[in-house]
Amino acid sequence: MEEALKLRRATYHLWTFTISKLISSFGSQVYAFAISFYILQLTGSATSFAANLICNILPRTMVAPFAGYVADNYSRKKIVIFAQIATTLAIGGLLFISLTSGLSLVVIYTTTAVLSLTTQFSGVAFTSSITGLVDENRIQRAMSLNQMSISFAAIGSPAVGGLLYGTVSMPVFLMMYMIASVVAVILESTMNFTLFAKRKEAVEGEPKETMLENMKAGLSYLRLQPALTAIIWLLLSINFLFGAFMVGYAFILIEKMKMPSEHFGLTEGAFAVGMLLMSVYLSARKDLKYPLLVGKRGIIVMGILMAGIGLPLIISIPYNWMFAFYATIMFSFGVTQIIVNTPLMVWMQKSIDDDFKGRVFSIIETMAMALMPLGMVIYGFLYDVLPAQWILIASSLVLVGVVLILARPSIIRKAHPEIEGEAVEIKVAGESGV
């Protein structure tokens, strides 16, 4: 009876978690869209626009390790709720200033920095709590629904942001965002973050680790998990090498192919649609048996797709066929990204001890946030001096090589020891003539 109640509660968590993530993802992306337009209209300066992006990225990068420590040592539910309340207050403060004295760049930058911090703490705490909110059999569904929320926000936020920005005033827009944030707080307060959690209870009288010792313990834990360490390095390599795609795609279509902005936007929309459809599919199907193996194959396909982006630079094709080709490539990229992200995240959720999840996920995020801008800067320079198609082909070959080395069969067997057992069973069955 108790188990049935827990499962019913987990079902409730699946939907409240999804709605909460949808509100936060949609709200933050619509806000980012509207505030970017506002800054550009106010100043007409790309530097002012870039400064707002820095105010979003820099605080998150700086506090990411601390966010992991906090998530592993304090109540994750309180962290999520306090972070969402802080988001509500920050938007409320911006609303108050816009009504009384008008918005200034300093106020906008400060609000962006505060929202960046709250997003970081909330994100790490929420990600670390998945296995506490839902039963193990539905972790894949939870991760798929999370990706679905992000994809839906990516598709809808530019349209909604553009519509709202053109039809309502900034105070009305901020009021709507604040109300949505309050709804998210109410939803999160009804969730039991420890329903299936396996965190160790603190022993009374036992000396508490300092923050530095706690973070060192997280790194020591990783060193004892060779499969996990290999997969983390693989994910970081993807983040760096993906700079070839992120910089090269827009450069090739806009600069080399002279594609109109509306057609370029449609190809990017195909990416979000691919992500959304694949997320829906994975949320409805049973758990993948060997998520790491699926992720490995997905990364290889991703490498092939990356090389394909440069194909129209080598082979001349009519414009309509070129547009259809890039829309198909981007749709496939969206599908493949979910095939890679969701199984790998499910495997990590099941493999990492609850007491270390916050630190491990914050280490991944810190390094990823550092490597992605670095990759974009390096590739930005390379695209100015080398042919784009050869940069993409070389990067895709490196990506495939990295996945074959870091996700080699011995690592896959460590992550999924049952593969070897099944291979032995098949061999014995074959030898016995069954």
UniProtKB/TrEMBL annotation:
PANTHER family: MACROLIDE-EFFLUX PROTEIN (PTHR43266), PERMEASE, MAJOR FACILITATOR SUPERFAMILY-RELATED (PTHR43266:SF9)
InterPro entries xrefs: MFS, MFS_trans_sf
Assigned keywords, A-Z: Cell membrane, Membrane, Transmembrane, Transmembrane helix, Transport
Record flagged with keyword Metal-binding: no
Transmembrane feature ranges: 12-32, 38-58, 79-100, 106-127, 148-168, 174-197, 230-252, 264-282, 294-317, 323-348, 360-382, 388-407
Predominant place of localization: membrane
Pfam families registered for this protein in UniProt: MFS_1
Official protein name in the record: Enterobactin exporter EntS
Locations listed in the record: Cell membrane
GO molecular function, one term: transmembrane transporter activity
Gene Ontology CC terms: plasma membrane
Top-rank lineage group of the source organism: Bacteria
Membrane topology field: Multi-pass membrane protein
